[in-house]
Amino acid sequence: MQAGSVPRGGEQRHRLTLLTLCIAVLIAQLDTSVVNLAVRPIGEHFRAGVGALQWVVDSYNLLYAVLLLTGGLLADLLGRRRIFMAGAALFTAASLLCAAAPTVAALIGGRAAAGIGAALLLPASLAIIRVAWPDARDRARALGIWTACNGLALAIGPATGGLLLDRFGWRSIFLVVVPFGIATLALALLAIPESADPQDRHFDAPAQVLGAVALGGLALAAIEAHRDIGTALGAFILALLALAVFIRVEARRGAGALVPLDLFRPPGFRGAVIATAGMTFGMYGVLFLLPLTWQEGGQLGPVGAGIALLPMALLFVLVSPASGVLSTRFGTRFMTAGGVAIIGCGLLLIGVAAGATSLAAAEIGLALTGLGMGLATGPLMGVAVGAVAVARAGTAAALINVARMVGATIGVAVLGSLFALADGGATGLRLAMLLGAAVQLAAAAVAWITTRRQAMAL
After folding, report:
1. Radius of gyration (Cα) for the chain, nearest Å?
2. Major facilitator superfamily (MFS) profile domain location, by residue (predicted)?
3. Phi first, then psi: what are they for 2, rounded to 5°?
4. How far are the Cα atoms of 151, 199, 222, 347 from residue 372, in angstroms, in the given order?
5. pTM of the predicted model as reported, rounded to 2 decimal places
6. Per residue in 376-392, pLDDT tens?
């Protein structure tokens, strides 16, 4: 069935579709946030070294990054529901493998398989929203709720993971995903209509390899940045070379490319990609550096640091569902540019207050960061998938997720390096947050200009 012939269900079916998509993204993000807590008990159980334990986390991130573009293309070619269900099934099976893993090597393999499942599931999920809600206002509301699930995972992940680890052991954090994965598969059959747009498109193997090398090299550079600077630098150079060749190959292939370069022609799409990368640059920098500073300075322990981060997650969860209504009332331009600018103000406040004995200013900065994320995330994704034809929904969804991943990867690497060069502490945090704030404000300016141009073009 072609995208244009997707049947419109009633309100009840749309709610069931959105519930299905939300469960899927929630378990994918929740699993990611919880696994970090389980590294120590996993190491004790398997008597594993630090290197192996790092790959328990990083194998997921690396495979997810490598296959994002593939997942988006397959959704457009083979069917968005089909690829969504394949990703959910693989993620569920991988969780079972992780729960039953007899060795740490098997656990790393299970985590890698889960990363592949997420690379199929998440772009397809966003593409389905683009197809199932053709009206921009309805789609904005759906995206707001879908986006809130990312924040919900961030908010409940540490508490849920801690409870499961304490009561049932580390294997339980993987087992808890399984019933929700099965429910996702059953609901998808009932609620999600199939759609695909394979015309004049193919797998494009050379671009797949080059894209995988570019994204994988970038992810590997971030993974190794704090372990082996030589490997990280080599991976980064490889990623840049692969990206240059990738662009050249795609320019030659035109409309049949894995990533047709004319996708970037609409100013709104370009702006959404840049603003999204800028947003995650600062957001993940805060999540990485602020708890580290608190713990190194003796202000808070691991549990206290997790609790202190809650204002950001809670504001994100509370505001995201309303972002669609607010977009309708105040306009997409205000939401995207304004939201990213608010994040910049939050980082600025955290940087200025670095070294203070009281956490009050940092908590207000985190609240501003969560507020800005809640306002901007859904509308930015809506602009990205709404600026391209339905036939390219999967590819657009993959690209906006690539922007998120690239922004987060570069943000942690750059801000973390600046923090280290300043010998950490309050000075390192201040410099890193001021740079992060500058990037946020620049990204907000891009969103403001491109959204205006898009509106004028319409």
Report:
1. 21
2. 17-455
3. -80, 160
4. 12, 39, 25, 11
5. 0.78
6. 988 888 888 887 777 77
